[in-house]
TrEMBL record:
Protein name from the UniProt record: Uncharacterized protein
Similarity comment: family membership: Belongs to the short-chain dehydrogenases/reductases (SDR) family.
Pfam families cross-referenced by the UniProt entry: adh_short (PF00106)
Organism listed in the record: Castanea mollissima (Chinese chestnut)
Entries under PANTHER family matching the protein: (-)-ISOPIPERITENOL_(-)-CARVEOL DEHYDROGENASE, MITOCHONDRIAL-LIKE (PTHR42820:SF13), SHORT-CHAIN DEHYDROGENASE REDUCTASE (PTHR42820)
Length: 131
């Protein structure tokens, strides 16, 4: 059994990316990383205003915001590359970005499935996590 003091230091000095960090669980995770002395937190999201506000509220000495759509592999690659270039390393990727539904039409029947919207949902929630 480890004591709480030693377990609290596991994040100290680490560099982390939090996708979907502008709100919800991603935001809560970014804030928790800051509490536990993470050296740098990069919030990656498509919600620019929210992400920038979260980064500022955590503190610009620890946290930055980068616009990143995880369904676009080039944006993910640029996110990782810029993080490593800025901080010399990357220790943690908290892959949290996701969307709840692909379309606003919740009353679709199985005969009316919008496959373009479904492809976007899968690109963000499944493929984006792997990217």
């Amino acid at each position: 059994m480890t004591d709480s003091k030693s377990s609290n230091n596991k994040l100290q000095g680490k560099v982390a990316i939090v996708t979907g960090g502008a709100s919800g669980m991603g935001e809560a995770t970014a804030r928790e990383f800051a509490v536990h002395s993470t050296r740098a937190i990069v919030i990656a999201d498509i919600q620019d205003e929210k992400g920038q506000n979260v980064a500022v509220s955590i503190g610009s000495n620890v946290c930055t915001y980068v616009h990143c759509d995880v369904s676009d592999e080039e944006q993910v690659k640029n996110l990782v590359d810029s993080t490593v270039k800025s901080y010399g390393r990357l220790d943690i990727i908290f892959s949290n970005a996701g969307i709840g539904r692909a379309t606003h039409a919740c009353d679709q029947s199985v005969l009316d499935v919008d496959l373009v919207a479904y492809d976007k949902l899968m690109a963000v929630n499944a493929r984006g996590m792997a990217a």
